# Entry
Amino acid sequence: MTAAKQTSETRVPFFRSIQAKYALTYLLVVAVILIVMNTYPLLMAENMVFSSKENTLKRQALVIGSALAVSETLTREGVEQTMALLEEVQGTRVLVTNADGQVLYDSSDEDNRLGGYALMGEVVAALRGQDVSRSEYRDGAIRCWAAAPAMYNGQTLGAVYIYEYDREQAQVLLSIQSNLRYISLVICAAAAVLVLLLSKALTRNTGRLLSAIRRVREGEYSHRVESLGRDEMAQLADEFNQLTDRLQTTEEARRRFVSDASHELKTPLASIRLLTDSILQNESVDMGTVREFVADIGEEADRLTRISEHLLALTRLDAGAERKPEPVELGAVTEKVVHLLTPLAQAGEVELKCRIEPACTLLATEDDIYQVAFNLMENAIKYNLPGGRVDVTVRRLGGKVSLIVCDTGVGVPREDMPKIFDRFYRVDKARSRAAGGTGLGLSIARDTARLHGGDIKVGPNPAGRGTRFEAEFPVLKEGDRR
Ligand code: ADP
# Structure
């Protein structure tokens, strides 16, 4: 096993797997939700409690302040009398100071500050004429402070300071908090299980696709992935299946081509072997027979040359070798081929006629167009009958230029027409062999035409017996010339 193979087949560690990434993402989302759930409602509830308490305390301070402000000065007795009339509030401590901050009244028994100075921030602010409040939650209790001035005729006589210590409401807040924690824990556990199951389900298809890719890579080209639903993974699987279809077709074509090519090469080689053996093993062979056999060996060698030339041409076409297209006059190239093939036509007693329209220019290489024209016309002569005809037409119609080759030869059966462009396909093997064919000419011609935006079509000769081939290309317009 190669190093590359080993690497690609190693199991991805869990922490680097897509499943772990999915799981982590889900868990992060759940964690964020839980954090928000555990803080926001609590903060809201706390703020509500604080502001309601502060408002109540401030209102009380103001009420006491206005109840006290009945004369120009505050006295300890006066304050005590007024305070005695007011209802005492549970859990609160009330302090009243004069304008200097000296305590005139303190409702607390434990830490009574009567006579002392109360210099708390709230008192100082109240003596400046402001009503203030503040709250905090500490050690399982809510503490709240408020202060308001006692005003008489626009003059500050003193300050009323109220402090409240509340454990009950703090307990309510605490129980909300612990309930939320309990719920969060349950959600966390459920989310962890769900995340594991979900991420596994989501990555199951990735695993299936991965194993399919590996099987195809190992050479199992017929393997396909089953339908994986309707999401992007399913599309990926479909694309993979289509890719594998193409790979399988290409691979089969390649194998067929290699086996056909070796068979085609073996046949002339076997003939050469046979002919040489016949000469070597027969001592009494006369010179005339030897010459005949050697001529046959020469023919087989020619066939081998043709096959290898055609194979080379196909390989170059498959490799997509760089070509430099230039304007080519189809008529001029056709005339050259007609001129070259006239002796062959005469030898086969075939009449070769040609009609060429002017201005049939296309963009290609002259060699390629020559190759196409030569293959079509040579076939039309090769597969003709003595006394037959080949009509070659070069015309321009719409945006196309065409080379039409009609013959009155042996024809191609309809069912064979789509196959004659396949590599090594011959309708009549013996006739093709006798005519020196390789079964590659049309395949080369069509691939070459397609390389220049053209194509070759085949059909029966509309004039009667024989076949009609039409190679068409996009015309080169004036504007296309640079
Ligand atoms: P080959 O080298 O055998 O001629 P081609 O690829 O040129 O190979 O042609 C493939 C087959 O198509 C030929 O073997 C022949 O059977 C058939 N064919 C091609 N052109 C003609 C034609 N003009 N008339 C009849 N049969 C044809």
Confidence is low (pLDDT under 50) at residues 1-7. Residues 18-68 form the longest helix (51 residues). The chain is about 55% helix and 20% strand.
